[in-house]
Amino acid sequence: MVKTFNQLQIDYKLLLLGCLSLGVPILLSLFASRGLAQEAPYFVTYDHHLEEPGNLELSTNALLGVAPRAGNGFLGNWTEFEYGVKGWWTTEFYLDGQSTWRESTLFTGFRWENRFRPLMDEHWINPVLYAEYENLSGADKTFKEVVGFDSGFDNIEPNSLSRLETEREIEAKLILSSDFKGWNFAENFLTEKNLAAGEAWEFGYALGASRLLASAASPSPCTFCRENFRAGVELYGGLGTEQSFTLSGTSHYLAPLLAWDLPSGVTLRVSPTFGLTHASHPFMIRLGISYEIPGFGERVRKWFE
User: Fold this and answer.
1) What beta strand segments (E) does 104-261 contain?
2) pLDDT band at 216 (very low <50, low <70, confident <90, very high)
């Protein structure tokens, strides 16, 4: 069936939201001192590298669902504020939103995560402990993680109904990560529970591998040097629930990654994402832009001296 222009038209509020969220890191990169641009290329998987103490990283990310199995296409967005509290502790606050074609644009809630690294020295395998609280509406479409029997068919319900649902959830992850000869290998096992009575624990996983395209840095700053690019791949999906721990009937995704560190301190990321099972979305695209402000905590303290 040939779609009309109106069917493909993006909500003007989505364009405004996208421009504002993308503009924050860009403006900061123009008026602040140069950032460190050490953002990992992953969108779903976590490695063992935490935020430097006192640094603040701003990031906005988009997930474009261009070919859903059911319902309308959508664009999910989450904006991150990541702060290094200590060398062993990073905290992060998220604001989520989404726009669904021919429906509406919504703010869907917030998340607060904390990551703790119990062993500060580098080891063959470096563990990190992760805890998160989520307060989201049922209309959230960021797919920041996949657990249980999450499905591409979950989007059939229109925003007018799903926005009325409130999901307060806790999530925990065991993050294992290793750096070896320029490569990073990361493995995440996660569990999530809706705090509503009677809800079961859900399980999922995420695996990632990435590396710089060149390990030796150029003697002078440049934009298109190979050492400014990192490539990798993620594999993630659901593992059922405590009543049914299984791969059967669950969603799984394979996603190549590319990250580009600009001399200004901005990092750009892109990840085409392919669904591997009938329960998965067939195809999605993730986009991200981030900017790191070094010494943010010290600057704030000086304002009050």
Assistant:
1) 105-116, 126-137, 166-180, 183-194, 201-212, 229-241, 252-261
2) confident
